[in-house]
Design brief:
The structure holds 3 protein chains of 3 kinds. By secondary structure, chain A is mainly alpha-helical. Chain A contains 19 helices and 3 strands. Chain A has a 3-stranded antiparallel sheet. Chain B has 2 domains: 156 residues, no CATH class; 234 residues, MetI-like (MetI-like fold, Orthogonal Bundle). Chain B is flat and about 85 Å long. The model of chain B has no long low-confidence stretch (mean pLDDT 86). Chain C has a 6-stranded mixed sheet, sandwiched between helices. A 4-stranded antiparallel sheet of chain C has the order 2-1-4-5, with helices on both faces. Classes of the chains: A mainly alpha, B mainly alpha, C alpha/beta. Chains in contact: A-B, A-C, B-C. At the B-C interface, helix 12 and helix 13 of B face helix 4, helix 5 and helix 8 of C.
Amino acid sequence: MSNSQAAGAPPKRTIDVVNASLKRRYARERRFRLVGLAAVILGLTFVGLLFADIIAKGHTAFVQTYIQLPVTFEAQTLDPAGTRDPETLAGANYQAVIRDALRSEFPQVTERRATRALASMISVGAPSHLRDMVLANPDLIGTTREVWLLADDDIDMLMKGHIDRNLPESERRVKDQTVAWVEQLESRGRIEKRFNTIFFTTGTSREPELAGIAGALMGSFYTLVLTLLISFPIGVGAALYLEEFAPKNRWTDLIEVNINNLAAVPSIVFGLLGLAVFISIFGVPRSTPLVAALVLSLMTLPTIIIASRAALKSVPPSIREAALGVGASPLQTQMHHVLPLAMPGMLTGTIIGMAQALGETAPLLMIGMIAFIVDIPSGFTSPTTVLPVQIFLWADSPERAFVERTSAAIMVLLAFLILMNLGAVLLRRRFERRW
Amino acid sequence: MQTSTLLIIVLGLMSLAYYVGRKRAIVSAGGAGRISTLHSLPTYYGLYAALWAGIPAILLMALWTAFQDEILVTLVKAELPGSMLEGLTPGAVGLLVNDIKNLASGAIVSRVATPEMQAAADRFSLFSQIAVWAMWLGVLAFAVGGMAFAWARTKPQMRARNRVESIFMVILVVFSSIAILTTLGIVLSVLFESLRFFQEISPLDFFFGTLWSPQTALRADQVGATGAFGAVPLFTGTLMVSTIAMLVAVPIGLMSAIYLSEYAPRRVRSWAKPTLEVLAGVPTVVYGFFAALTVAPFIRELGMSMGLDVASESALAAGLVMGVMIIPFVSSLSEDVINAVPQAMRDGSYALGATQSETIRRVIIPAALPGIVGGVLLAVSRAIGETMIVVMAAGLAANLTANPLDSVTTVTVQIVTLLTGDQEFDSAKTMAAFALGLTLFAVTLVLNVIALQIVRKYREQYE
Amino acid sequence: MSTTVDDMSRRIGAMSSAELAGGRESRVTVGDVTCANPRMVCRDVDVFYGSTQAIKGVSLDIGKNEVVSMIGPSGCGKSTFLRCLNRMNDTIDGCRVTGSIKLDGQDIYDKGLDPVPLRAQVGMVFQKPNPFPKSIYENVAYGPRIHGLTNSKAELDEVIEGSLQKAGLWNEVKDRLDKPGTGLSGGQQQRLCIARTIAVSPEVILMDEPCSALDPIATAIIEELIDELRANYSIAIVTHSMQQAARVSQRTAYFHLGDLIEVGETNQIFTNPKHRLTEDYITGRFG
């Protein structure tokens, strides 16, 4: 007899007890399930919020405000001697040309401070734009052309609605007077937002409207290429040795523990290593793709080794036995048969490692990538910054206009990362083999 | 005379050596028809020659570039008049050498060049020129010599394949030892600087001091000449931010792992899981930006609307965002361990009439607990070492506080701050950064080793 | 519907062996699938995994206080059939069950029926012992706890002692109830799993090759235990070992490739099988 029956006079059947508590248990079940669902939704919401926030902040950076002015390339100002000597033309006062153009557009503005405010509507980069125009085509001298000139970042922000025109004047960076001028230009169709090529073609600048990501992008490119060249052969070689050739002893155990641990060492520690070893001891030049690639290679090596070993493990032993059976040497077996089969898996791991390297910031701060470098780098040893560090630097800048540039740079970075990860996923799908 | 040009020339010589070696092997065998008399395929003789041409030359080049600068500086310093170096601290000597180098390369110099300096600079550029020429000659000689050596040894009975393979094997061993060298490099570099730091500042003051203000004097006569290096506020700050992060990441990560692996329909799972994992792929600098420009102001406004005083760089904002970053880390690790619990456990529970949540809470989670704990420890180690989010969203003020709405600073923030300002390499400030790095490395190392051990034991249990 | 099926099977049961001689390869069940005092009544049960059919029209009764054994070659569907009886197949994706399976007259595949209380009534012991990674005490206490069967610690202790005693494990573990269940030997683990099942006081116990992972001595103990448990429970056991089926069961059902070929008194099946396939199997010609 069951215990419960022995206990009481009316036999208590299990099923009755179970049924009695069932409602409560199912309520708990539903609650638990809901909590799980809520966690997933919360996580997905974070993804959505992050991307929505970045895109909302950054999408405006892909256009830039330009002001159209009738520019008279006065021979008197630009080339008084009339020699068309490039040096004279390069050194001429284009600022004055712009001032004249503004005066002709706003003849009513005469007061000194107002003129200065008027001139500040045009970016400080505009004169060099005019200079480039004249140097490219000296025949412009003496003519009047309608030229779209880059507006100052404050005007840009006003046009994009980041500066609220309804705020009291004292709380607004752009004063009433300037707002009125902008409105005049708007009514005349002389101010508009155009695609922002500067953002993609120039290096960084203190002036938001002149700042671009080309320098950082090239820096990232050189760094990544070098990182790949260093870490891929070493990673694959190390994986090959550890997985296929290494005797199982304390030394290889130690290497194994080491690799697993290195994969979890904070990235900033690698920065300290780079500073103390590569820069201080070996004298590798700071701020260069070379030193960045050395540090990032050491960082991505564990990822590549671990992925490559997994790829090698998934190649069935029968293939090795077949190759060895026809008289191939162990190394030939690996090179001709095992490596080609494991290659997609290794490449997938490498792409993921490269994506990590592309997004890494902290260790690069330690090795001088934080320097302010305007020029677009030309090689592995020219000073540069990289995209994530550029983002960090811009995020620190106080100008409102840098917020949208930072977000736009983040969008570019994320686009590259998504492409790389997509590549890894496709590669895995394409070559995934079940044995 | 770029080093990269030399490298390309050596690579060219290697391909030449490959071609020549292969040819020579075929000829020595007595023509293409008699290749079978060779011990190995002609390709291996080519590879053998190429390796002999390349490896010694490249090794020489690497060593030369690594040590050229140091040797030149020593030579130039030896020639400097003793009066110039007299009474200078090592740091000042370093500055002087830097100026001489800049003078030689025509860069901007921080002081007016004395004739002695000019002479030293001239000497330096002369030496560098000689050194570069010598390196070119040496490297090319090594390459050609290696090629000739291989040429002389190419005979039909030479076991080229075995030789090439053993060279490859040595290369593979060297590659796999790089992991050890990296760890060794980390340990030595942080340890060496830390030891020097602890000679100036007592470890007791560092580990138990509660005042952190690393502003040392630039000049000896400056007011407030010595900084305070009590790292306790940094430790508590790190602890607070990490705790907030784990409070966010562990419940959300664990519950979403449970939901996705046990409840979600396959279709939902197939897109929800990769979407969540996007969070793991987002660079930390992006989280930092998000924390500093979106979350921190939001929390501040929220706090103000509730009458709370929230710092604009609160620990809460940094911790929350860091937690979000760690969610996919926790969830994918927990999902792995949950999936490793054998189906037999679930069957046993269901067969007794347990509901799904009872099975999960009372059987699966306890069974997976060691694995989950291991995963959480790894996540903690990651939170402690995370840098960009706290650099951008937490402050610099070393407050000893338990209020998450206050601004705190962390170990990683201070490492970055101490090493990115303008200071000499040898100052107490930089060395303090290495001492913090050592602490960070030691703590995360211990966490990682324990966590990996737990996870490994756990996996073995169900294999 | 079920009456016609009953009639059918009775008719088949009544067929003489001479009648069957012509259709020896017939897949219609030979023998009487019903029993005098049925606890579970299964009629025309089909089971599909995706598009493949694992069980084809199986009808079988499981009586009160009897042990029914199911034998047959690997992949014949006997385990699948067993797992239908407490809806353990629900946990397998793409598994579909048609036909009717009734427990005390209630269709367990009825839309409104909940598998949770069903499984409290129909317990299951698996092929490989699967104690939870908890203490011995907690393993046995699991069922009573989730179902809220006991009201006090003393009552729970009593249930646990009773269950362990019935499973013949009490004397071996009474001093180490707080030790993990996974630390026991294989045979002890399996008895712990049986105790865990008994602790819920089910009405039917399903056993899926409970001794296949055990050594002969442990097997003998479990077999003895099954015989004792018959006094209180209905038991259906799937086994690979014909000797075991002969030792522990009163009725035996022979499955072949998803069909129930023959059902009968255990003695009759092993001494005088009516179907050629049954005969081939028990004489060791295949399987």
